[in-house]
Amino acid sequence: MDRVRGQQAALWQEPTGPAQMPRCVHGASGYGLPKRPRLLSASKRTDIPAFYLEWFSRAVRRGWVDVPNPMLSGKFRKLLSAAVAHERGLPPATPAGRIALDELMTSDALLARKDVAASLARTLTHVSLDPAQVTGIVWWSKNYGPYLRRVEEFAVYRRQFFQFTINPRSPELAWLEPDVPPEQEALDQAAALAGRFGGGWVAWRYDPLVFWFENGEPRSSWEEEFFVRACRRLRAAQIRTCVTSQVDRYRKFERRMRLLHPEKPLRDPEPGEFAGILTRMAEIASEFGIRVETCSESGVPDSCGVSAASCIDARRFEASTAPAADRSLGRDSCECHAHIDIGDYETQECGYACVYCYANPNHRLLTGGADRQAGLPEWRQ
Length: 381
Description:
The protein is α/β, with parallel strands linked by helices. It has a domain at 132-375. Helices cover 33% and strands 14% of the residues. The chain has helices at 2-9, 25-29, 48-51, 53-62, 73-83, 95-105, 108-111, 114-121, 145-149, 183-197, 224-236, 251-260, 273-287, 363-367; strands spanning 38-42, 64-68, 124-128, 134-141, 160-165, 202-205, 211-214, 217-220, 241-244, 291-294, 307-308, 340-341. Helix 10 (183-197) links the parallel strand 5 and strand 6 (202-205).
């Protein structure tokens, strides 16, 4: 761990300049300004590195970001719509739209109305992006190409950890994750991250495992050949962790499957099936010096040879030696430590159209509308 921290130390930069009152509804009202450093997640709610990096870069330069409370998003939109004259309504949930929304929320006309600012502030969490107020950042993505091209912009943050989802890309599984980067591209990106930050700061996620029937036969997204290839490539990059879980059958996932893939009804794993996959994963991974961890999975037999993941681990960032688990998602088996996620389900649609997504995936792709091509991610740029 000391060697890995040393690799990141070369990128550390000390924060400069005095703290200023933020120009936002919190600064205008004096409500809800943070009083301590925070560990940031960017983000479990959308793919910021792939689609919202320009928005985040602007937020870094500004020094803060206001995050809508997921439980109060309806109230937030209602208050904002009533407070500003906007003929076309609120900006769309796209990368450009999220930037426009920030501009709207920091307009002179809005901030001058103290009562409105105070009401809006109660629906938003103010997050300082001052490096002195950021314990570390845990990134989540399926495509770090844009991030790698702009990595220097974020070198002010002392510690950065990368959760990188790389699932099988075989043609028979393409319907699960349309338009994600090809396998080799993704593995090369993982190696590039590890080369810059150290393999201990990158976790590979083969996640989630999906189970369905096809032509009456039980199928799943477990592919042993892919797993072996990925283990071999990531071992060379000194990446030592693979995180997995079985898919959660959210109602929106069930609806999409009935609409888009009625010939592939979802199923629960057969008795012992998931445990069998975990056991095989652990056997293969151990040959490459990789450990397998499960995310928010309870009841996994010890005989599988896997351990529970702490995907956001404050101890890695030296923030705490005995942090409490973060229960904000209501998942009792989650081992993540206290953090704040700076993404948003409502205002930041993910550019991918992963059919199992619990957040807000690209509706143009999922519905197959006439403007489908307009929604394709330009990961090759």
